Amino acid sequence: MKWHDGFEDQLFAVRIVDICENISNVIMKTNVGTADKVIRIIIAAVAAALIVTNTLTGTWAIVAGVVGGIMLITGLTGFCGLYKVFGMSTCPMEKNK
Q1: Angle at the Cα of 70 from the Cα atoms of 94 and 88, rounded to 5 degrees
Q2: CB–CB of 91/32 below 8 Å?
Q3: In this predicted model, which residue has the larger pLDDT, 74 or 16?
Q4: Does residue 43 contact residue 68 with C-beta atoms inside 8 Å?
Q5: pLDDT in tens, 48-97
Q6: Is residue 57 left, alpha or beta, with left meaning phi > 0 and alpha meaning psi from -120 to 50?
């Protein structure tokens, strides 16, 4: 067993992160704007609160949990698959330089 300072492992981890970011930029280009992100995260928080307080139970709680989870993920990542399918974006347009 070879002991080392973990430098090779750190380089490997950094490389993996770089690869994931590149894939994310190509496949999951940001298409959710700031206001849209905030609204999605608020919807997720409301859904979670309704479930935790037992205001919603049963099937409605499951539906709210799924919708809330999707809203949270899309709000945090800035990517919405449905927006991509329909060619939509709520991101501000880039100005030509």
Answers
A1: 30
A2: yes
A3: 74
A4: yes
A5: 999 999 999 999 999 999 999 999 999 999 999 999 899 999 988 765 44
A6: beta
In the DSSP assignment, the letter for residue 57 is -
Tokens of 52: 């935790």
CB 33 within 8 A of CB 90: yes
What's the CA gap between 86 and 97, in Å, rounded? 28
Evaluate if pTM is beyond 0.85. Answer: no
Name residue, tokens 């049963």. Answer: 58
Reading the block at residue 60, the tokens are: 């409605």
